[in-house]
Amino acid sequence: MRHPHTRTARRTVVGALAAGLLCTTGLAVPAVAAPAPAASARDSVTPTRADGLALTPPMGFNNWNSTNCRAEFDEAMVKGIADLFVAKGLKDAGYQYVNLDDCWALPARDANGKLVPDPVRFPGGIGAVADYVHSKGLKLGIYTSAGTKTCNNAGFPGALGHEYSDAQQFADWGVDYLKYDNCNNQGVDARLRYTTMRDALKATGRPIVYSICEWGQNKPWEWAADVGHLWRTTDDISDNWGSMLSILKQNLPLAPYAGPGHWNDPDMLEVGNGGMTDTEYRTHFSMWSVMAAPLLIGSDLRKASEATLDILGNREVVAVDQDPLGRQGAVVSSEDGRWVVAKEMKNGSRAVALFNETGSPQRIATTARAVGLPGAAAYTLRDLWEHRSYNTAGTISATVPAHGTVLVRVQPDRNWAANPPAVELGLDGGLLLELGRPATLTTTVTDLGRTPATRVSVSLTGPAGWTVRPESAVRAPAVPTGKALRTRWTVTAPAGTPTGSYDLTLRASHRSPGAVRVDSALTLAAGVVVRPPAGTSYLSDLPWLSAANGYGPVERDTSNGESAAGDGHPITLGGVVYAKGLGVHADSAVEFYTGATCRTVTADVGVDDEKDGRGTVAFEIWADGRKAAATGVLTNAMGARPLSADVTGAQVVRLVVTDGGDGIDSDHADWADARLMC
After folding, report:
1. What beta strand segments (E) does 217-318 contain?
2. Do the bridges between strand 546-548 and strand 423-428 make them parallel or antiparallel, or are there none, so unpaired?
3. pLDDT at site 21
4. N or C terminus: which one in the chain shows less Cβ crowding within 10 Å?
5. How far apart are CA 251 and CA 280, in angstroms?
């Protein structure tokens, strides 16, 4: 269930990406992409268990992220989830397992050494719950730990030394899935502990999917393919962008180890728990599906919004995860946070995720050949979130919103011409407006299809009171393959507009060769900004454009603290206390507008003393797209290190903290005494 550190420290998202531009899906000009990686490494993986279970990644629900050990976790709640699976169409979408996490048992075994279900939570016992779940055409999962106790502080009994007895109880109750955690393991070899439970489950004669949850500490992907059906590759996920991103990056390189009956498990889904935006949750769901990860819902379905259900119930995305070929998507390219991940599908098509890690929209591009498709006159490209099909001459690309993912499925298709050409809406550069000054921007409408887009028109609108005026053509009779309608605009915010982010909407329409009208739209977020004052300023006294943090919010003039705003302590590095600075947690990025008027950023940087010797991080200062300074990996024991960067001419300065390459546990980092000279 929970690793001891992360159980008590639930990570939450910070703030808004308020500047630059935010956009919906658009398709972009091609970029040079790396060759698709070979999959030959998978040939050396240990053979999987030959029991016919988990031939596609398990799909279902786990209560922990939504209820923890609270009293609401009970028989009625579990039965209610089963009912919702049916009523909300989740069962029909492929969700099958209703899994109980910790706290279902009493803290002590009975006189015969047997597990005892909590009679308050489960008055009918686990068998009755299993019967109910089975009556709905679903399956029941249960939890214990490969230790003397489970992970909860109440000390519920673990299965170490009781494997055969406990496994038989689970089988007798009708359990179909076991999550086997790693707490209180007494130092016993992990491979021995998990293999013993494998043998105990097999001895029951009941088919039970076996989920190894040892947090990736002993690299189970290297040895567990014939032990479990899935294995956790990382520490626990939390409901925030930094946690999800860190886990994603740790799981992506493990693609060669996944396949039918043996899956990499980057932990359950946080979709709908409230700590991320819907854009980020779509990324979460898209990337888990491309990685052929188990899809275990971790939100409270009793309170799920329509947006949450739309994400979880997107059958086209689920089909990517459940493709019977069982390939995990492989990274094609990842330059500057612009990721292309491609997954081979059984029918020969490719699912391609264009994932934008950064805090501002990016054009992300690859080609059909780069993702492993054969040459063809044209391809059908299916957008799995828009549920629309297009033809493309071979370019697979999009203008992707901050923290967003465009997920498409591409294949050679003799009927490609039945689909309209793929057309991208884009923007050259960012969109920052200084108060009292008009801004000029150029929009693009690019035809990526094999057929021309005809009768193309474009419009741009802003908030009430804003002036948006075209300075060049807004119509074109035809846009051929690879060409674009480029329109220059002048945008002015009215006097007195507060600083912040404001939506502009770019709309376009065109006709396919069959005269079918295709409408598209792109939302651009215009950031209204002010230049920093001349002289030297503390960065903690200036407004930021955006702030993303791995745990809790970015704090001004205190350390990161825990997950709540304002819970930090005086910034302290190596025993030295600082009155000013920024307290962050990896992975973190804080952006400031400098308007090409500033020269230097300086700070003392390091891991805050509040973590008692733990934490490894690396600091970077970026000036627009250029890395202007970096520290390398720093540990808590190293105290403060001076860092200075020349940012002359930069419009935006970005302060970045990464996890040092070992995950984001305890990575409380300080930009102490951070100053900007303008």
Report:
1. 230-232, 263-265, 295-297
2. unpaired
3. 31
4. C
5. 18
pLDDT in the model for residue 47: 61
Annotated catalytic residue within 236, 265, 267, 608: 236
CA atoms within 13 A on the CB side of 431: 33
Residue located via tokens 């008055």: 123
Phi, psi of 120 (to 5 degrees): -80, -45
Is residue 404's pLDDT more than 60?
Answer: yes
The answer, as to whether pTM is greater than 0.90, is no
DSSP 374-401: PP-S-EEEEETTTTEEEEESSEEEEEE-
Q: Who's near 318: CB < 8 A, 6+ residues apart? A: 59, 93, 94, 289, 295
**What pLDDT does 11 receive?**
27
The pLDDT value given to residue 499: 87
Instruction: List pLDDT tens digits, range 257-309.
Output: 999 999 999 999 999 999 999 999 999 999 999 999 999 999 999 999 999 99
Beta-carbon-side half-sphere exposure of residue 364 (alpha carbons within 13 Å):
31
DSSP-derived 3-state class of residue 565: coil
- Separation between Cα atoms, residue 378 and residue 292, nearest integer Å: 28
pLDDT for the residue 336: 87
In 475-598, which ranges are E strands?
475-479, 484-492, 500-511, 517-529, 536-538, 546-548, 555-556, 571-573, 576-578, 581-585, 588-593
Task: Tell me how far apart the alpha carbons of residues 396 and 422 are, in angstroms, rounded to a whole number.
Answer: 9
Nearest alpha-carbon partner for 259 in 324, 188, 199, 310: 324
- Nearest by Cα to 351 from 419, 407, 279, 292: 407
562, 570 in Cβ contact below 8 A?
no
**How confident is residue 129, by pLDDT bands cut at 50, 70 and 90?**
very high
Contacts (Cβ under 8 Å, ≥6 apart) of 117: 104, 105, 106, 125, 126
- For residues 446 and 29, what is the distance between their CA atoms, to the nearest angstrom? 7
Kindly name the residue from 181, 604, 608, 665 that is annotated as catalytic: 181
Amino acid in the structure at residue 612: D
**How many alpha carbons fall within 13 Å on the CB side of residue 324?**
4
Residue type for 154, please?
Answer: A
Annotated catalytic, 181?
Answer: yes
DSSP assignment of 415-458 equals: TGGGSPBPEEEEEES--EEETTS-EEEEEEEEE-SSSPEEEEEE
Dist. CA 33–CA 45, nearest whole Å:
28
Region for 114 from its dihedrals, namely left if φ exceeds 0, alpha if ψ lies in -120 to 50, beta otherwise: beta
Is residue 542's pLDDT more than 50?
yes
- For the stretch 219-236, pLDDT in tens is 999 999 999 999 999 999
